[in-house]
Amino acid sequence: MKTFRVRDAMSKILLAMLAISFVYGAAGLAVTLAGRTLITARRTGDYVKVILECLLGVFALFLPSALERNFKITFPNGMHIFFVVFLYAAVILGEVRGFYRRFFHWDTVLHALSGAMLASFGFSIIDIINRSERINLGLSDWFMSFFSFCFAVMLDTLWEIVEFGMDAFLSLNMQQYILPDGTVLSGHAAVVDTMKDLIVDVLGALCISVIGYILLKKRRPESENTAAATKG
Q1: Considering the entire predicted model, what is its pTM?
Q2: Which of 47, 73, 143, 173 is deepest in the core (most CB within 10 A)?
Q3: Cα atoms in the 13 Å half-sphere on the side-chain side of 211
Q4: Are 153 and 202 in contact, with CB atoms under 8 Å apart?
């Protein structure tokens, strides 16, 4: 219960920060469109990114609870807390506070953590389903590990598609194909940021999948021994 209260409090604090940041982004956008600048002197596209990422952050914040409620599954509180911290680092620190621009590898680290976190979510989902007496799929450890890896890579790839769409329709430069001095990259250089993100996503997901497989193999004999003792 103590961990749940911490998780609930952190979620509420993050929700309040997202709401405040949304108001900041909306005000900045309105002032910029009016031909003036705030103290931060950001561009129009920067405020649009703040607004969109705050909206996506709110959606992501409520997503685990919605999955728990609709699919009758329960994510570990520790994983939920890590998810909240990740959203804080990605949206509040990364976009609102400008860590993506101030720290060169901030985006890379978050993508690696994203792959690891999503693989953990995938493991939790498939493990709960696999252990359900009602469904009883009897999935192998290898398949569960493979599923968690594919689950993470698929969602990270979808995010890159979202970034591509935002760049195409709103010119937000989320895939970093335009340098700070205005130079538009082309050819191989234009896809470096996207491919770097996907590579670290894959590595993060792969690490968790391997670790999960090892833990499942260690747990399996204990489960089999317990089942044998029960039958005996």
Answers
A1: 0.85
A2: 47
A3: 11
A4: yes
Q: Tally Cβ neighbours within 10 Å of residue 205.
A: 28
Task: Report the first-to-last Cα separation within the chain, whole angstroms.
Answer: 36
Are the C-beta atoms of 213 and 126 separated by less than 8 Å?
no
- CA distance linking residue 52 with residue 13, whole number of Å: 19
Handedness of CA 156, 161, 164, 166 (dihedral sign): negative
Q: Which domain range does residue 211 map to? A: 104-220
Q: Is residue 139 located within the same domain as residue 205?
A: yes
Determine contact, residues 57/51, Cβ cutoff 8 Å.
Answer: no
Q: Dump pLDDT digits (tens) for 64-94.
A: 888 888 877 778 888 889 999 999 999 999 9
Residues 6+ apart with CB under 8 A from 197: 107, 108, 111, 156, 160
- Boundary residue ending a domain (58, 77, 96): 77
Tell whether 63 and 18 lie within a shared domain: yes
